[in-house]
Amino acid sequence: MRDVFSQSSRSHITSLVHEKLPVMHKAFPVMKIFFRHASVAMLLALLISACNTIEIREESAFDAHRTITPERFDVPGFTLHEQTVVTSDGEHLDSWFLEHEEARATVLYLGGNGFLMVKSRPLIEAYAKAGVNLLLFDYRGYGMSSGSPSVDGLKKDVASAFDAAVNTFAARAGGHAGGHAGGHAGGHNKDAHTANDIHPENTHPVFIHGHSMGSLLAGWLAERNRVNGYVLESPISNVSDWTGGLVPFLLKPFIRFDIDPVLAREDNIARVANIRSPLLIIAGERDEITPVRMAETLFDASGSASKQKILIPGGGHNDLPEHELYAEALRSFFAQGL
Length: 338
What we know:
Layout: H1 7-27, H2 38-45, E1 52-56, E2 78-86, E3 92-100, E4 106-110, H3 121-128, E5 133-137, H4 151-175, E6 188-190, E7 206-211, H5 213-224, E8 229-233, H6 239-245, E9 255-259, H7 261-264, H8 268-274, E10 279-284, H9 292-301, E11 307-312, H10 324-336
Parallel strand pairs: 1-9, 2-6, 4-5, 4-7, 7-8, 8-10, 10-11
Antiparallel strand pairs: 2-3, 3-5
Helix pairs in contact: 1-2, 4-5, 5-8, 8-9
């Protein structure tokens, strides 16, 4: 559940499970089959007090871990430029612009809950095979970025990062095609550019890629901006659909969710229906956090005339970049969109 609820919320529910499981097995023996799934086991424990309400508040929805110093990657084909993205409300986001020596486009990556750039090597290696520039950043309150996370704050983050991809970083890539801005393939540079350096004349192609929680932000961003295409990985259809899927049919009369309205309004189903840009949906067939059915719902709802759905056999929620099919799907999608 790491990519949806905070550690404190999960720890509290887990403690209830350890205390009540013996009683639950005696009272509901037919439900033992559900205990293969941790999320369901957590919910079952709450039945001990009859009907229950699970509160999901905005302030407990984020898993913001901090790092001390950013890791440096040495991936052939990429030059890493350490950047700062300044948001519209003055927060400073730690950012990496990975410049590919043969890039014809830039991809803005929006991570899931708990995403940190320092843990993204498998993602970067997969993207090295796609032949595009990659812009990564840590949300406010995550990693070395300033501030504290909130739904409205993260929307400001992705909007500012998109401006950076379209204007500052993409313009630099367009002006240094095949170059390394003073670096070398697999190297690292530190630059002072921020999202405030605007280059309106830039027409460098930009794609958006959102994973899990980031898929909601990607849908929100793609609906409001012109993009060459967008990728939804392990996507969330909407918050109410996701929480409803956590509860087995037999338990639905006993459990209800009290979802913070700020979170409940996040609906990717409605968003993708309005977006005409090319769409790639990638999901793992063994994903128990955001099940495949959510990817299929979004694919069916999409208003794009050019959409693809890739289901990765054996893929889970956070390990898709480690599968060869993942890199192949990205490479093919970006090639078709240029």
